[in-house]
Prior knowledge:
Keywords: Cell membrane, Membrane, Transmembrane, Transmembrane helix. Belongs to the UPF0702 family. By secondary structure, the chain is of the alpha+beta class. Helices cover 44% and strands 16% of the residues.
Amino acid sequence: MYSLLIRTAVIYFVVFLIMRFMGKREIGKLSVLDLVISVMVAEIAVIVIEDVDRPLLDGIVPMVVLMLIQVGTALLSMYNRKIRLLFDGKPSVIISKGKINRDEMRKQRYNLDDLMLQLRENKMTSVADVEFAILETSGKLSVIPKERVEAKETSPEVKEAPNVDVETSGHTPLPKGREKLIPAGYRFEILPIPLIMDGKVQDENLIKIEKTRFWLKNALQAHQVTDFKDVFLCTIDHKGKLFVDVNKKKIT
């Protein structure tokens, strides 16, 4: 009995320290990788506690290895978006402009009861009042109501992207009012749309909104930015509002 109590206390503190070293991401955002590691750590802890004849190191060493795997992948995903997408996946648009995307629900095996439950949790009583509902990679439903999308107030750091575009010859800016910043058929998988992440231009998103790097560079000039590498994050919303966060070390 004393051996069992001691083993339980030791494993408790080991698991506690491992979860602490894994960081708040493990608790706040339970991705598939995080879920697998959490389940495995719990299973290993139970086996070591129940089998009093097994050395404690048989449980501690595998748990430490799992911790190193989780921390290592988290660090890699910080600097490589492809790895982030590989482990975390992409968000799924369940509702777009008040219309339910049945194909995406079927693909994610997401039923109407789940949808209505999470809409109620977001204090939404009607699907018609939802501009976008996005199923995040963590399983949480992010809901953007229509009144928020239609609101005219913007934060001080958000500016409208300039009304410039690139024609096939001469790079001539289009007259104001003729361009569409976001194509009508664009599916908002991510709101807002990232154009630059970690100093790297997201060319696939530029293509989706029918823009070019030349247009983006002109848009960044309003923020006194001349090099894409100086930008930590640049996003654009459905109204063409541009948000730019510049790397502090680049500011002089």
